[in-house]
Amino acid sequence: MNVPLLDLKPQLAPMREELVDAITSTLDSTGYILGPTVEKFEKEVAAYCSTSFGVGVSSGTDALLVSLMSLNIGPGDKVVTTPYTFFATMGVILRVGAEPVFVDVEPDSLNIDAEQLAEIIDKDCKGERKIKAIIPVHLYGQCADMGKIMALSDKYSIPVIEDAAQAIGAEYPFRNEDGKVTWCKAGSMGIAGCFSFFPSKNLGCIGDGGLVTTSDEPFAAILRSNRNHGAEPKYFHSRIGGNFRLAAIQAAVLSVKLRYLDTWHKGRVKNAGIYRELFQAAGLIDNPVRLPATVYADMQDAEEHNHHIYNQFVIHVPERDKLREYLNKQSIGCEVYYPLCLHQQECVEQLAIFNQSFPVAEEAARTTLALPVFPELTPEQLEYVVQKIRDFYTH
Ligand SMILES: *Cc1c(COP(=O)(O)O)cnc(C)c1O
Predict the structure, then answer these.
(1) What is the pLDDT, as a whole number, of residue 349?
(2) Closest-lying ligand 1 atom to the alpha carbon of residue 201
């Protein structure tokens, strides 16, 4: 049996005609950059994410970059984030000339540890106040602890840019003062929510694409200006900005696909549930296999909300690299997100952060393995994956 990590082909069939129509009408419109197709999609995503505005951009990376630029973050500033994320989260901080500051992750969710974040921010705010933004990442499709993070943001007026590249539609349970819970969409809590439509994300386009959500009208205007060289009006530049524009053809495709997104989320959640049962039945849970933590599953009304959208289903295992090789030999796709933490990357060798110690993130880099979880997988395929993992540990 063959179980790819991700196969986009089966999702194509049911919407192929709609996609072809959308692509054809964009082709015939001869309006290929921004324009009404992009504006329509921006409104749809903003509504989906419960924000006032959406600003379509060229990629998830550029969503982060243009957000930092629009907050005027640059040389002399520091930005706090996690060392256990895709490279882009740190790359954009360095590209605007600012300095990344890392906070280790929680052992269960692998999201930024809000308690340690509070210590770093408290300390900075008693001194030079160099920290100008916080970028929590909603890793694998589960939100960071935004209640604590937004409380810090409010206390010290430090803006939060959510890296929601893996988490479109994921929800965070805010606990209100009266003890009730309000579920908030990823990207609706910070001043900016950054999304990627790279094909492997839950909502992917047919190339590169991204979007920034915000409910701050002046900020939305700055984002729009900066994604197009800061031109306002055309050929007059009060800002520098860049070319971060979204192509109309991508927006046309995304408008079609957005209508299927909640169904796909359900399929991923269902597959994650099947994995949990299979691992349980195989007697593998906790030893040797640690399943992905669902840190909000016990919150009020969690079953009705996307507390995890499983962009990745990531287990922790001993002998990770050997298991990975073994599974690949059995035609099972799996991948390591991520094998090297950001503070250990060669490109930051000259910086103070290089080789600082973040033990939880480093442990994760040694033990995590993402298994296939895309919606169209069959129960037989999931069974095969778990069976092969059991074979590996019992032989
Ligand atoms: C995918 C991703 C990005 C970058 O998105 P691109 O569209 O590939 O530029 C940024 N951050 C995280 C956490 C991601 O997973």
Answers:
(1) 96
(2) 1
Query: Do residue 196 and residue 324 come from a single domain?
Result: no
Residue 275 CB-density burial (10 A; 0-12 exposed, 13-18 middle, 19+ buried)? buried
Other Cβ atoms closer than 10 A to 201: 21
Nearest one of 163, 159, 171 to 134, comparing CA atoms: 159
In a domain, 1, yes or no: no
In terms of Cβ atoms closer than 10 Å to its own Cβ (0-12, 13-18, 19+), residue 51 is: buried
Domain span holding position 83:
9-258
Note the pLDDT tens digit of each residue in 57-115.
Answer: 999 999 999 999 999 999 999 999 999 999 999 999 999 999 999 999 999 999 999 99
Residue ranges lining ligand 1, Cβ < 6 Å: 59-61, 85-86, 88-89, 137, 163, 165-166, 196, 198, 208, 210
- Looking at the structure of the chain, the number of domains it has is 2
Ligand 1 centre distance from Cα of residue 382 (Å): 27
